[in-house]
Specification:
The structure holds two protein chains of two kinds.
Chain A: H1 16-41, H2 47-59, H3 64-85, H4 100-120, H5 125-140, H6 146-160, H7 165-177, H8 183-196, H9 201-214, H10 232-249, H11 254-267, E1 272-277, E2 289-297, H12 300-303, E3 304-308, E4 311-312, E5 315-320, H13 324-328, E6 336-343, E7 356-360
Antiparallel strand pairs in A: 1-2, 2-6, 3-4, 3-7, 5-6
Helix pairs in contact in A: 1-2, 2-3, 3-4, 3-5, 4-5, 6-7, 8-9, 9-11, 10-11
Chain B: H1 2-26, H2 31-35, H3 38-50, H4 55-59, H5 64-77, H6 86-95, H7 113-126, H8 134-142, H9 161-174, H10 182-191, H11 209-222, H12 230-238, H13 259-269, H14 278-287, E1 296-297, E2 304-305, H15 306-318, H16 343-349
Antiparallel strand pairs in B: 1-2
Helix pairs in contact in B: 5-7, 5-15, 6-7, 7-9, 8-9, 9-11, 10-11, 11-13, 13-15
Chain lengths: 363, 357
């Protein structure tokens, strides 16, 4: 139902023997699939079902129900092994044949199976979902070296195909499981990838995340310790150099240009784009004064002073974004591109000679 | 209100496009109308219902529900819906439902968000929604939402922005959006926005044309399009068009007809469909047809399949080559970019239809 990169061969030109072989294979697959689904219906979560599902996923890795079944069986064994290991009475015969050691072996074998399957079909969602599940199950059993090992495998796979977004996302999931975020290491990884090939959009993407994390400023969340090397300006200079290198190598490659556009807007402080003062209106929801910034800002109540004829006005600042719903769930210190000011006393009418001014001091 | 604004922008574009089309129709059928072999495609989809002995059919059993949705929607878009075995299809769909309310990809396959959406879409097109307990299905879908607003595909916990779209689309069709936390779902989608204005499969993951469709579509259903950066995303999306006129899904990738849907519908929802070369894309889709056996492939010269046939037909419809437009293709009907359903279906159900572009 979904074919990619398969050259069309008109029906009359197809190899009859090959077609017959494919049909035979199809019938075998259908029979195997029916057997597996029947066993699932009958609740046969056993060794035989493991064998059959293994056979099925080797030809048909996208058969998600087969993977679900494998997880059900593995989970049963994991749970059974856990209850065995918590048994304190030495005289009680082992509740099951499954021990933490045997489960460890099973899960390691599952990773082996997945390594082969992923090598054959590196873009099949099921495989990455199953890998993540298996890795988590092993982490729950201990296995402190597993994360590094898996990261190593990711690096290998990305050497083979640097744009495999399944692998990059899996790597992201692994990094999030690590005890401490290391944005500097992530940045370095993307540097290697970009130096190897400037046209590696995936690497530029992950670079934007690592950079933003390392040099969070303004209203962004800083999730990592600042690097020893320096601040935002040094980082931006380094990035600009990297972009220049890429652009001189191949000016028609879109990756560095899209990255540069982001870099500029990210690195520059927000600027005030628009001030709109409206005539006094009987409607309480019509804000007399609106400010629009180029990026989300917070701290407006403390940082902006509105003065009328040199006297500061009192009033209320509210973040405006998307209307009613946002106001209702406003966090303690919202960040917004648009802010509305409601002065305690109404502003003078539009044709008066009053002078309204703003002074801004926002971090 | 925001989607109305984008709709208004779309109407301005369509006026510009109409003036271009007048030129074609003055000489008779447009070149696009001449090249689209509608009858071949009808025969192609009909034959798919019969050829159940192939290897392809066997290995795609797990997604049969979606396969039927692609075929059925295609036939309705090319004015041949009445040729489908509607009763058989409806009965088969119901056999795939589980006690939980969810639907599997085929009979006895485990329930999953993807196939639950396809099932409801099929029943919507067939006007057979009375067959399901809407509350039950909605409960299943709503039960897949997590604390952070994201959605998993099934009990095994895969999180993907695709599933937010599936949930919102499905619940909207069932009239049960109130069962989920829409604000949190929106917040999750927004958290998946990247440096380029695009969206990845999870927060932090690289932008992809398919995810763009899912995220923009989800925001459209939620009435939350204002969170987008339309110029940034519009630029990223229009950069998907390559020399041959086709669209790819990410930078430096090969063009693929399915992106005529994912990328194009996103541009339509952004009111920026005119940022690509319309005629060049249409030419690419038409080149990818199998003019002998029918159907459309991922790219010219490749084997056709029902997935690319649907997205190719949908793409041509979104590009404005529908029968109601000058230079349009006789028999080609309008598709909705948000729900990926025939506009007729949404109109019958009283659901919002994206303004014509």
């Amino acid at each position: 139902a979904i074919m990619h990169g398969v050259k069309r061969v008109p029906v009359e030109e197809r190899d009859a023997a090959l077609e017959a072989a494919k049909m035979a294979k199809a019938q075998k697959l259908m029979a195997l699939s029916q057997m597996i689904l029947q066993r699932k219906k009958e609740g046969k979560l056993d060794e035989e079902t493991l064998k059959l599902t293994l056979k099925a996923v080797e030809t048909n890795p996208e058969f998600y129900t087969a993977w679900n079944l494998r997880r059900m069986i593995l989970k049963l064994r994991i749970d059974s092994a856990a209850s065995t290991s918590t048994a304190t009475d030495a005289s009680t015969p082992s509740a099951s044949e499954h021990t933490p050691q045997s489960v460890q072996t099973l899960l390691e074998q599952e990773l082996e199976l997945l390594a082969g399957a992923i090598a054959k079909s590196p873009k099949t969602y099921c495989l990455w979902v199953h890998r993540q599940w298996t890795v988590q199950a092993l982490l729950d059993l201990g296995n402190p070296d597993l994360l590094d090992k898996e990261l190593g495998l990711c690096a290998e796979l990305l050497r083979a195909d640097e744009r495999n977004f399944h692998c990059w996302a899996f790597r992201l999931a692994l990094r999030r499981l690590a005890p401490a975020a290391d944005a500097a290491a992530d940045l370095a990884f993307t540097t290697d990838k970009i130096n190897a090939n400037f046209s590696n959009y995936s690497a530029w993407h992950y670079r934007s995340k690592a950079l933003a994390s390392l040099h969070a400023h303004g209203t962004q969340q800083r999730t990592a310790a600042a690097p020893a090397g320096g601040g935002l300006k040094e980082a931006v200079d380094a990035e600009t150099q990297l972009v220049e290198g890429a652009v001189y190598t191949d000016p028609l490659d879109q990756s560095p240009w899209i990255y540069l556009r982001w870099l500029v807007s990210w690195a520059l402080p927000p600027s005030l784009l628009l001030v709109a003062a409206r005539p006094p209106s009987p409607s309480p929801s019509s804000p007399p004064l609106l400010l629009a910034f180029s990026a989300a800002v917070s701290g407006v109540a403390a940082g902006v002073t509105v003065t009328l004829n040199a006297a500061p006005l009192t009033g209320k600042w509210e973040a405006v974004e998307g209307g009613e719903r946002t106001r209702a769930q406003a966090p303690a210190e919202p960040a917004s591109q648009v802010w509305a000011f409601y002065p305690t006393d109404p502003l003078p009418p539009p044709h008066s000679t009053a002078s309204l001014s703003l002074s801004l001091s926002l971090s | 209100q925001r989607s109305k604004k984008f709709g208004e922008m779309a109407e301005v574009e369509s006026a510009a496009r109409d003036s271009a089309n007048v030129e074609d129709s003055a000489e008779g059928k447009s070149s696009e109308a001449q090249k689209f072999c509608i009858e071949k495609h009808r025969q192609y989809v009909l034959k798919l219902q019969e050829n159940t002995n192939t290897f392809e059919y066997a290995v795609t059993e797990f997604l049969r529900m979606s396969g039927i949705y692609w075929g059925l929607t295609t036939m309705h878009l090319i004015s041949a819906g009445d040729q489908m075995k509607s009763q058989e299809i409806a009965e088969w769909v119901m056999k795939c439902q589980h006690p939980s309310g969810g639907f599997g990809g085929s009979i006895n396959h485990d329930p999953h968000m993807l196939y639950t959406l396809s099932a409801v879409q099929i029943l919507a097109i067939l006007d057979r929604m009375e067959l399901i307990d809407k509350d039950k299905v909605a409960e299943y879908v709503a039960g897949l939402q997590k604390e952070d607003g994201s959605f998993v595909g099934d009990e095994w916990g895969e999180v993907d922005t695709r599933f937010v779209y599936c949930a919102l689309n499905c619940l909207s069709l069932l009239g049960q959006l109130h069962r989920i936390d829409v604000d949190k779902a929106v917040a999750f989608v927004v958290s998946a926005m990247n440096f380029d204005g695009g969206f990845g499969c999870v927060p932090g993951a690289e932008s992809h044309g398919g995810q763009a469709f899912c995220c923009v579509g989800a925001l459209a259903i939620a009435g939350a399009l204002h969170h987008l950066r339309p110029d940034d995303l519009g630029w990223w999306l229009c950069e998907r068009q390559v020399q041959g006129g086709g669209l790819n899904g990410r930078p430096e990738k090969l063009p693929d007809v399915c992106y005529s849907w994912w990328v194009l519908s996103s541009l339509v929802m952004l009111g920026r469909a005119d940022w690509i070369d319309r005629k060049a894309l249409a030419a690419f889709i038409l080149e990818a047809q199998d003019t002998h056996a029918g159907g459309i492939a991922d790219r010219p010269g490749d084997e056709a399949d029902v997935f690319h046939t649907f997205f190719g037909v949908g793409g041509l419809s979104l590009l404005g080559y529908t029968q109601d437009r000058p230079g349009g293709i006789a028999g080609l009907k309008r598709v909705d970019p948000v729900y990926a359903l025939p506009v007729e279906t949404l109109e019958r159900m009283g659901l919002p239809v994206w303004p014509v572009a």
